[in-house]
From TrEMBL:
One of its GO terms (biological process) is ATP synthesis coupled electron transport. It comes from Acidiphilium acidophilum. Keywords: 2Fe-2S, 4Fe-4S, Iron, Iron-sulfur, Metal-binding, NAD, Quinone, Translocase. This is NADH-quinone oxidoreductase. GO terms for cellular component: membrane. It catalyses: a quinone + NADH + 5 H(+)(in) = a quinol + NAD(+) + 4 H(+)(out). NDH-1 shuttles electrons from NADH, via FMN and iron-sulfur (Fe-S) centers, to quinones in the respiratory chain. Couples the redox reaction to proton translocation (for every two electrons transferred, four hydrogen ions are translocated across the cytoplasmic membrane), and thus conserves the redox energy in a proton gradient.
Length: 685
């Protein structure tokens, strides 16, 4: 490790460190525009100039590796003058848009012009103008503001794996463009807004809506997939205006998927803001007293064995705990959180977790996908797998399932279970690659488990994992990738059929007389016969509400404190940013009120007591934001039944942008379907 001196401070830094990293390790602030920790070095803004002893002129610190005995000066008169000159050049053509620019108040160029620039300009010539580019319905462009830092170009090429941007022309005529005018097709395109150090790229749906200092900022957890991305909810008054990612290197690094970022306008539309009752075949508005009385009347007169409950994909753990306790008090064993009927065995936690952990992907050198498209089901996780491929030239990937562009090379091994069974042969070419890998992993998706032969598909995958060395004392390479934020929490709480209970399939088609849908909108509503009485508790007038006899308005994830468990088993807390609209209430409080009216009050009256009950039900809820790798067990006990069919694996989503009640209500997501997805589908045809 070389020893360097930074402004008189001696320190030792790792091999390969740049001068900029060494300076920051010494506590020195280095201004920059093009440099970003998670992108390759560009070295084209020159704002990070420093002096190095024995070098004749200032050096761009981002691209200069450290050397033994190097003496670095970050704040000499020459350095200050050089930075002023660089800033002066950057501002030659930059327009005076600050009063109307959405980047105002959080603009790197503003901040660094104040901190490192001159107090006047010597240029009075006309500024150049650049035609704005069309990047789709999500990203707004004002390319006259662009300083050609190329962060957006590098992000899409390196992290997202969709190299749709680049530079044309040279010198003063250089422009960042997408060559062919069309919407950006990456599911991570919104991150270039965060990366842009000026106002060239901003959020189109957020244009001219608010200033950053007007917003109330609330830390929370994303629920549009099962990764548990850490987010910040920016709100003003009673409205969510913006959602941004928070840095968490163990989960999402600093990226956020487009649906999670932009579907927020669905929170304002098709909302359930007061109770409804179906009278004489028509749904009519009701008071809370009327609605709760109707619920209690139905529950009191129902056979416990004919009462069932299904939890949806966006539910918080608190509401599932309360509903499970309510049904248990009524004597009903019929409850399930697996809307798609996935064959997930809750007996052992390793059977339904991403056991390698998200951070563990950084150690893998081979991956097998089974019935999953991580690019659509977990875009942030897919970006991490892609980064691993970039870092390790020996990394290999194979897929059994519907063909897909994962943004990195992979071998498509087949689309059905026959291709999966073929991997049990030690002589199979890809099986040899898995065996030769030091830390291989297998990722199985929900669509593979939701088939009629899902349990056997699971067993085949366990056998492949065992035979290829994925299950060892220090490495658990068998992973289940969920796409529902509520799924792992529900399994941890035991929101599954109890002894003698019915699953989702058993509760449909007349399996129960009374069905409580807790935000469950993804089941086949046509499979619920007219004689089944349906109570729907949720926040949107979606599929479940359309079938319901009683509608109880609940709160969306931005409107309540909630606990969510991500696909790797990490317990995380979301906070309330705004209050629910109208008469809507937090879901667990509605269930608690019903239990009181039934004369079977649940043993908790506040959130603290409810979370203590959750920790009692499963100790993992007592240790939030922690995850540990489980040692593999029971791999040798699984067996493959003869019911495996060769039906092809199908994609989890018809389209990435509309997968839940919130995104289906979002006008922005509807634009993405028409302006991004539809042209891509037409081109494929």
């Amino acid at each position: 490790m070389p020893k360097v001196t930074v402004d008189g401070i001696e320190l030792e830094v790792p091999n390969g460190f740049s001068v900029l990293q060494a300076a920051e390790a010494a506590g020195k602030e280095i201004p920059r525009f093009c440099y970003h920790e998670r992108l390759s070095i560009a070295g084209n803004c020159r704002m990070c100039l420093v002096e190095i002893e024995k070098m004749p002129k200032p050096v761009a610190s981002c691209g200069q590796p450290v050397g033994e005995g190097m003496v670095i000066f970050t704040d000499t008169e020459k350095v200050r003058q050089s930075r002023r000159n660089v800033m002066e050049f950057l501002l030659i053509n930059h327009p005076l848009d600050c009063p109307i620019c959405d980047q105002g108040g959080e603009c790197d160029l503003q901040d660094e012009a104040m901190g490192y620039g001159r107090d006047h300009t010597r240029y009075h010539e006309n500024k150049r103008a650049v035609t704005d580019k069309y990047f789709g319905p999500l990203v707004k462009t004002v390319m006259t503001r662009c300083i050609q830092c190329t962060r957006c170009v590098r992000f899409l090429a390196e992290v997202a794996g969709v190299p749709e941007l680049g530079g044309t022309s040279r010198g003063e005529n250089l422009e960042i463009t997408n060559y062919v005018e069309r919407g950006l097709s990456s599911e991570l395109s919104g991150n270039i807004i965060d990366l842009c150090p000026v106002g060239a790229l901003t959020a189109k749906p957020y244009a001219f809506v608010a200033r950053t200092w007007e917003l109330r900022k609330t830390d929370s957890i994303d629920v549009f997939d099962a990764i548990g991305t850490n987010i910040r909810i920016d709100s003003r008054g009673g409205e969510v205006l913006r959602i941004l990612p928070r840095i968490n290197d163990a989960v999402n690094e600093e990226w956020l998927a487009d649906k999670s970022r932009f579907a927020l306008d669905g929170l304002k539309r098709k909302r359930l803001d007061h109770p409804w009752l179906r009278r004489n075949g028509k749904v009519q508005a009701a008071t809370w007293n009327e609605a709760l009385a109707a619920v209690v009347a139905r529950l009191n007169g129902a056979d416990p064995a004919r009462i069932g409950a299904i939890a949806g994909n966006l539910c918080d753990a608190e509401s599932m705990m309360a509903l499970k306790d309510l049904l248990t008090s009524l004597g009903s064993p019929n409850l399930d959180c697996r809307q798609d009927g996935a064959a997930l065995d809750p007996a052992q936690r390793e059977n339904y977790l991403f056991n390698t952990t998200i951070e563990g992907i950084d150690e893998a050198d081979a991956v097998l996908f089974v019935g999953v498209n991580p690019r659509h089901e977990a875009p942030v996780l897919n970006a991490r797998i892609r980064r691993r491929w970039v870092e390790d030239t020996g990394f290999v990937a194979g897929m059994v399932g519907a063909p897909a562009d994962l943004t990195y090379p992979h071998t498509h091994l087949g689309s059905d279970a026959a291709a999966l069974r073929a991997l049990l042969d030690p002589g199979h070419e890809f099986t040899k690659q898995l065996v030769a890998a030091k830390k291989p992993l297998l990722i199985i998706g929900q669509q593979a488990l939701a088939r009629a032969d899902g349990a056997s598909i699971f067993a085949i995958c366990r056998q492949i994992a065992q035979a290829s060395g994925m299950l060892t004392a220090d490495w658990h390479g068998f992973n289940v990738l969920h796409n529902a934020a509520a799924r792992v929490g529900g399994l941890d709480l035991g929101f599954v059929p109890q002894a003698g209970g019915k699953s989702v399939a058993g509760m449909l088609n007349g399996g129960v007389d009374l069905l409580w849908l807790l935000g469950a909108d993804e089941i086949d509503m046509s499979a619920i016969p007219p004689e089944t009485f349906v109570i729907y508790q949720g926040h949107h007038g979606d599929r479940g509400a359309a079938r319901a006899d009683i509608i109880l308005p609940g709160a969306a994830y931005t409107e309540k404190p909630g606990t969510y468990v991500n696909t790797e088993g990490r317990v995380q807390y979301g906070q309330r940013a705004i209050f629910p609209p109208g008469e809507a209430r937090e879901d667990w409080t509605i269930i608690r009120a019903v239990s009181g009216l039934l004369g079977k009050p649940l043993p908790y009256d506040d959130l603290t007591a409810l979370r203590a009950r959750m920790a009692e039900a499963n100790p993992v809820f007592a240790t939030p934001d922690t995850v540990r790798r489980l040692a593999p067990t029971g791999a040798e006990t699984v067996s493959v039944d003869s019911d495996v069919t060769d039906a092809p694996f199908t994609p989890a989503f018809a389209n990435y942008y509309q997968t839940d009640p919130i995104s289906r209500a979002s006008p922005t997501m509807a634009k993405c379907v028409s302006e991004i997805l539809a042209p891509l589908q037409q081109a494929a045809e």
